[in-house]
Fold this sequence. Notes:
This protein has helices spanning 2-17, 88-99, 106-124, 150-157, 161-172, 235-245, 283-290, 321-329, 334-341; strands at 22-24, 28-29, 63-65, 72-77, 82-87, 137-139, 178-182, 185-186, 191-192, 228-234, 260-265, 271-276, 279-282, 297-302, 305-311, 319-320, 346-350. By secondary structure, it is of the alpha+beta class. A 4-stranded mixed β-sheet has the order 3-17-7-8. Strands 5-4-6 form a 3-stranded mixed β-sheet. A 3-stranded antiparallel β-sheet has the order 10-15-14. Helix 1 packs across helix 6 and helix 2 packs across helix 5 (161-172). One of its GO terms (biological process) is sporulation resulting in formation of a cellular spore.
Amino acid sequence: MKRALLPIALFALLTYCLPLVSLFVPALASGDEAGASSAPESARTNQSPAAQFLAPEAEQEPEATGSADSEVIRLWDAGSQQVLEVPLLEYLIGAAASEMPVTWPDEALKAQAIASHSYALYQRDRASADKLEGAWFSADPARRQGYMTREVLQSYWGEAFEANWARLEALFTPILHQVLTYEGAPAAACYHAISNGQTEASENVWSEALSYLAGVDSTLDLTAEGYEQTVTYTTQQMYDAIVLAVPGAEPEQGKPESWFGEASYTAAGYVDEIRCAGVFIRGTDLRTALGLRSACFSIQYADGVFSVTTKGYGHGVGLSQYGASAMALTGKSCAEILAHYYPGTALETLAE
């Protein structure tokens, strides 16, 4: 059984870690969701969040700032193992399409595009020539993680390709050079699929605290399909996962009800640490070990089965994609959505 679980655990770990190569270098390692490639399938189809109709507010024109070489995005294709140099507009279309359904509201799609652009430039400023052959970050177009090429989109959208491409092209051309900045530099505008109702502070997932990633309310996420999910594990599956993932853990045979103890929580309600077979493990590490959707989880044991219930989907830091869509349906603008999820940042236009 242990041998059978090892590939599963390794696959869960890769699924969690591959889509992002490095978010905060060297402090924050990219995980499945800096960019979210953690969005659930419903977030890539025609699923729409519940609307709450509020009056829209005026959007201010972003301030122009210094120029930056943002015409071409250099990314590492994890599938083909080569560097892609992608024209900016094509990148924004492929990045947004990999994260949100094209049918979602205009302002949410624009917010996602600007977040993806800002994140790419943040990575550019920290890229090393001896890593990824000089690419700024990693994506996997073939698996629809982080970015999709035109060819992948043609296959993905089928007969709707021309209409969908034209829709996003029209949306993103006016915001082509808009980025989020903090203290004059591109912001680490990471994102995820669904929060637990509150976004998480960056230092609780990685190691660096950034003031604009300190966590905000995102209560509309509670209405998302897939917000809460329960998965089950047999006693043997849980035993093998603990032994594999938790150094020093010694689950007591015959007493599985004793394997998990008290937990501490972050201010946003995600598991900070939990006692596991006599040792404490970070909630994010147990999430990886078990392949959980979120670090906001609870564990129950009964009748030989462990039931793990999660709330939200993704690391929880930065923009909630579902929350952005829900806010757009209330009439909020792209600028307002970004200001909410990245407080203290500025929306600026790079000189062409």
